[in-house]
Amino acid sequence: MILILYFQYKIEDLEGLCNQLMAIFRTIGEALFYSTQNQSVGIILSDVQTRTSIDFDAYPYFSKISIDSYIDINDLTTLLGNRNISVRQSQEDIENMNEIQNNIITCRRFPQRHMLPAESRDTGALIAKSFPFAKKMLKFAYHIIGLMSFYPRWKAIHLRIEGDLMQLSAIRDVGLETFTKSQLQQTIDMISITPNLSAVYIASGIQDEKYNNAVNIISKEFPHLAITRKKDILKASPAIKEEFEALCLEEQALIDWLVCVGAPFFAGLHASSFAYLAGYMRHYRGFDKETTHLYPDYQPCWDAWFPRV
């Protein structure tokens, strides 16, 4: 019997969308590496998780959702099958489970080992150009990007000021109000550095009141700039908007993230996994460097974990 080495991601604690995606991408990267070492390799898919409220005002903060909220499993099976990597949707799908328990390697978002630049580049290119996100999520993202294309020149900006940030000690130390003011000023700066913008797409999960306050502040600086978000854009398509509102919060965040990945210009906080991973994808998709802005604070681990070679 051929013994297969399986890789499985682990998601826990307060890991939102892009920390989860990093764990999944890491698992695929490890499987790709070992598949080139004369090793029979597979990956095991498992559930992911979604937050139950935007500001973590309901406990438990996360609940499980199926991996097919993020991934087209059939397309992933084909993609990795072409690299001689098998895909299983759960451990129960594997025959002779007792014989493979010692051959399952658990992956988190951080590196398992030292990766050479060529490997990082090849893995990044495969993920950025070929990773099969769920078709339903892509449909929403492409619809939004298509409608935003009405504007001659637009930029997506990730505005990370949700209340769940208070789980981070650094944010508690400065206070959410002070942090929010800082992020709004950074947003204004990120708009200023891209000349001749006609519109800005705000990628954020904040509630209406907080969003409207942010828009008012930005509009005072740029009174002729159109400012919008997914919720507003989808009003023009009632059936699609109704379908969107039935999605869980992490699925809605994935749509925002895919819009940021595909936007002609993008800016976001470097310390946020959401913004950094969007920049990572844009890098390997060949976007011009000047179209992506990741502003301070700097988070060195992202560049070490998922380098843009």
From TrEMBL:
InterPro entries: GDP-Fuc_O-FucTrfase. Keywords: Carbohydrate metabolism, Glycosyltransferase, Transferase. The keyword Glycosyltransferase applies. Pfam families: O-FucT. GO terms for molecular function: glycosyltransferase activity. It comes from the Bacteria. This is GDP-fucose protein O-fucosyltransferase.
